[in-house]
Amino acid sequence: VTCSNLATTQSVKFTSQGDTQTVNTVAASLNDATGTADSITITSADPTAATDVNKIDVLTVTGAVETLNLILEADDVSTTDGTTIADINTGSTATVSVAGTGDLTVGTMDLNDGSGTGVTSNFNASSASGNITLGSASADFKETNSEEFTVTLGTGTNAVYAGTEALDNDNFVGTTGTDTLYLSESASGTLATTVT
Questions:
Q1: Angle, CA 62 vertex, CA 61 and CA 67 arms, to 5°
Q2: Residue 155 DSSP label
């Protein structure tokens, strides 16, 4: 599903129909992304059927859009999160801002962390009350291991799997939720990641 040439006042909503259906790709772009604070809002809406959840292979934003606003409305089904996104790949977008009450699992992310050491991509879920899981026990959440992240979590029960790819300038911030950060010391034997 591709939504292109969006006006700044337009947003995108997606939902799955049928408990085995997956939306392969959701892609969005603005008609004019020349501003310095452009944003696109994408909502994972609650499916009509109580047995359905939203699953996406790739969520992507194209063009020089500064912020992706991701709104979570889909309810869980048993132990399956209401929204599962295998890969968030936003190209030139440096910030993903997450809000809503639904639970979210993200496999990997590739945002725009700019150039130079210390310039981080931002995943900000401080306005989310659902449970957030980034990565898994078998794979860290970074699509590009050299990318530096600031991850801010919300009020839910959250888990971040950074594996051996946590970097000196990575910053993991908890707020009022219950957060677990999984780290493994790399072969270099150094770990200077900031955890607050």
A1: 50
A2: S
Contact 169, 142 (CB under 8 A): no
The whole-model pTM stands at 0.92
Torsion 54-56-61-67 (CA) sign: positive
Q: What is the pLDDT of residues 5-39, one digit of tens each?
A: 999 889 999 988 765 556 688 999 999 999 999 99
Q: How far apart are CA 26 and CA 179, in angstroms?
A: 29
- Per-residue pLDDT tens over the stretch 107-148: 999 999 777 667 689 999 999 999 999 999 999 999 988 889
Cα separation, 110 vs 44, whole angstroms: 19
Which residues make Cβ contacts (< 8 Å) with residue 142, sequence separation at least 6? 108, 109, 110, 135, 149, 162, 165
As a whole number of Å, the CA-based R_g of the chain is: 16
